[in-house]
Amino acid sequence: MPAPRKCSPDTDESAGASRHAPFHQDRESRYLHVSFRGALPCFGGLASKQRHTTSRAAVPPPPVRAAVPMIEDTGTLFLRGILAAAGLNPSHYRGTPLLRRLPSCLRALRVDSLHEARRLLSARPELTSKALEALLIGTTELFRDPAVFIHLEQEVMPLLLRRPARPRIWSAGCSEGAELYSVGLLLAKLGALDECVLLGSDCRPGALARARQGVYLPGDRSLPVNGGQWQRLSDGRIAMSHELRKAMRWEQSDLLASGPTGTWDLILCRNLAIYLEPASADALWSRLSDALAPGGFLVVGRAEKPNLPGLHRVAPSIYHKCSSSHRTSP
Ligand SMILES: C[S@@+](CC[C@H](N)C(=O)[O-])C[C@H]1O[C@@H](n2cnc3c(N)ncnc32)[C@H](O)[C@@H]1O
What we know:
Blueprint: E1 5-6, H1 13-18, H2 22-28, H3 74-85, H4 95-100, H5 102-109, H6 114-123, H7 128-135, E2 141-142, H8 146-161, E3 168-172, H9 178-189, E4 197-202, H10 205-213, E5 215-216, E6 230-232, E7 238-240, H11 242-246, E8 248-252, E9 264-269, H12 278-291, E10 292-300, E11 311-315, E12 318-321
Parallel strand pairs: 3-4, 3-9, 4-8, 9-10
Antiparallel strand pairs: 1-2, 5-7, 6-7, 10-12, 11-12
Helix pairs in contact: 3-7, 5-7, 8-9
S-adenosylmethionine binds at residues 88, 136-140, 144, 173-175, 179, 202-204, 207, 254-256, 270-272, 301.
């Protein structure tokens, strides 16, 4: 089985998952929640750039949790301001994981304090994307959770490839693309790369630029050998083949506002929902379930458990939409 391989050293996903319930509430109930709909106090007028979609497909913002005036700590406010300035709706995101990224954000902006960071972003709003890259955790790796890919290769892909139409596969929140390349490597091994539509989407343009390059640090275990679909570069990194890169399409979009249209036979959306407020995560699962073709499969992160009628868990982290399922929203 191919090797799991880290693309980024930053991770707190397992920690995030374990905090999801009681601890999360204990800790955060000290802060009251803020929704950003208008201008943000955090760094000047940046927030006015937010482009929240009002389309039918958007994930609705979570209900406000407190009925009293709402105040959040200044660090979290600042970070939510970065999300808003980048066009994302900050109220979808949990405060605790955001706050943990504050030191990374300050490092990325090369400043020592929140005060300096605010001043810098007010003066140079173009640095928002740099702050966003540091704020949203992009940890990923080739063949992350190997058991999932074994099941995909042995059970799911053969099923999808028997269908008359070309299977459509979407990696939603794909970060630097390692997940979609892992799927692509397996399809190439099955001789079916040409037969599939492969799309990766993420809200961070920097991550997508790296996905297009398809070059990764090496891992501990070997990758599948299939007709030169990757090669080791002189610096030890691994480069995906031209054929593999050509087979993939990358799209910048906010998954919580809108997303690629059409129906999909296999959607991988792993390790994004754990950073969301529970109501936003539920709404996201519901939208993804709607986007699945009947008989399609949804792959989630190890700590994520969508609970939707019509989706049945067929293996750890893998859900199947019954062929007779109807759409859950109009
Ligand atoms: C931890 S990575 C997961 C990467 C990959 N799915 C995996 O599990 O290996 C989460 C990704 O979700 C992306 N993300 C967060 N919020 C998003 C949004 N609203 N729309 C699209 N992508 C988003 C982040 O930019 C990040 O790249």
